[in-house]
Amino acid sequence: MDAAAIETPGRRSHSCEVQARRDTKLAMSHNKIEIYWKTIETAPHGVIAQVRVTDGCGSDYSLPYPCKLTKDGWVNAASGKPLMVRATYWKLHVETTPRTKVGTFGLRAKAPKLARN
């Protein structure tokens, strides 16, 4: 029998240790998420929200569009189409506008057009 295949009692294999570290990181990241996000069970009906979802394969991400909780479940707030993923967290949606540049620093002024006769 190979010496590497024998595990010492009370000691976990390398793959178990790696998985335990991943689980700890995942648990820590969920704790950080809960600082800014509310659990999905606390979401009110009819309020436009930013939603964090999972696709069932372990991916957890925020949707790029606002959503709303209806009596039939979560939907896209603009189109009314139901979400095809499971919502996990929510927070109020805050609409932002693009930043505009102040002043004309670095831009050349256009010369006025002369009228031709």
Description of the structure:
The protein is 20% helix and 23% strand. With 117 residues, it is of the alpha+beta class. It has one domain. Strands 1, 2, 3, 4, 5 and 6 form a 6-stranded antiparallel β-sheet that branches. The longest helix is centred in the first third of the chain and has 23 residues. The N terminus is likely disordered.
Unreliable parts: 1-9
* Portion of residues within helices: 10-25%
- Our Rg estimate from Cα atoms comes to 26 Å
- The structure class reads alpha+beta
Count of extended strands: 6
Q: Averaging pLDDT over every residue, what do you get?
A: 76
Number of domains: 1
Could you state the order of secondary-structure elements as H and E? HEEEEEE
What does the largest sheet look like? 6 strands, antiparallel
**How large is the share of residues in beta strands?**
15-25%
C-alpha end-to-end distance:
101 Å
What form results from the Cα inertia axes? elongated
The DSSP helix count reads 1
Features:
single chain, 117 residues, alpha+beta, six-stranded antiparallel β-sheet, 1 helix, 20% helix
In summary, what is this structure?
The protein is α+β, with helices and mostly antiparallel strands and 117 residues long.
Q: How are the SSEs placed, and which strands pair?
A:
Blueprint: H1 14-36, E1 38-39, E2 48-54, E3 60-62, E4 67-70, E5 73-76, E6 86-92
Antiparallel strand pairs: 1-6, 2-3, 2-4, 2-6, 4-5
